[in-house]
Specification:
The protein has 166 residues and is α+β, with helices and mostly antiparallel strands. It is built from three helices and eight strands.
Length: 166
Amino acid sequence: ELTKFNINVFNNNIIYSLCDDFIQFKNNAFNKRKQLYKHQMVYPCILKILPNFIFNKKNPIVIGVEVLEGTLHNDTELIIPEKNLYVGKIINIQSNHTDILTANKGTLVCIKIQNNLNENLMYDRHFTHLDLLYSNLSRQSLDILKEYFKDEFDNYDLSLIDRKST
């Protein structure tokens, strides 16, 4: 009767095994919730535009960048907070002419940015290499990150999140 209400019952004669069963159940439930939120996860990063590597100035913008802080992931939305400017979503990352999914701090990569909200956005007109690009962290993505993905970050990355959310 409890199963129709989706209630789990733990039964074991050994208290340590009972505790282990509960911990395993709790970890499995956490991992299931984590998978549900994975597509909403935004990893914090700051990018520096390399002025000698501007390949396409209009949509899709193709530029070389250096990852100054954090980790760059494909599908990350980029903004320039100082200008209140939405730059677009990264649809491709390349390193040495090879597609990659992530780029770590200190890495030089080429990114392709698609902006479906403002297709007239243009490098050199609306922003330049003097502007830093930031991953677009919303309150919701910060909450998801801190709740489910905190274990994937070291203390330095967490301090980057704290600086960006203030």
